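[[Local backbone shapes]]
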Amino acid sequence: MAKIKFTKNEQKKQQDALKQFQRFLPTLQLKKQQLQGEVRKSTELLEANLAAQQELLTRLEGILKFCAAEKSIAFYEEHVKVQSVTKGSANIAGINVPVFEKVEFEEIHWDLFDTDWSTDDAIKALKDAVSLREAYKVLEVQHKLLTRELRTTSQRVNLFEKVKIPECKENIRKIGIMLGDLNASAVARCKIAKRLGAERAV
């Protein structure tokens, strides 16, 4: 704790600081609540994405059972090549986060007469799986940024609530007591001086 001066100027400075902390605290508390909600929502989105990926993999396994035995998963992966991943950005609770938009795949054609009926389904399922995986990466970054901001905001709220505001109040109390004592002492000295002056005049 910084050393304080027992002066009226210091008292005013501490009172101004207290008002400022008390004014900003509700805003920080509101931001903390918003971030807690966004982090919760972000966690749910990550879990939902993982569940969707698992469901898609199960569906893909089912499709591949119907595919020609000579066509391995590598055949289908060769026909699913990512060209680009498009991301946007959004402002959530005051911070900019990336937002997944879509995956563009290379246009790869295959001989319809040389492939069985399930090839289209398998390739479509693989593209969906890749899109979910790319979306998950962006959701992870979102979650990390929101969690970090929540931690920083929580630290600020704690600093204001548990350190700065109590510290200012205590400093104001101490300065008030000291100024009161100094004032009482000055009044007493003044009275003694008057009495002595009056005695000398007699």
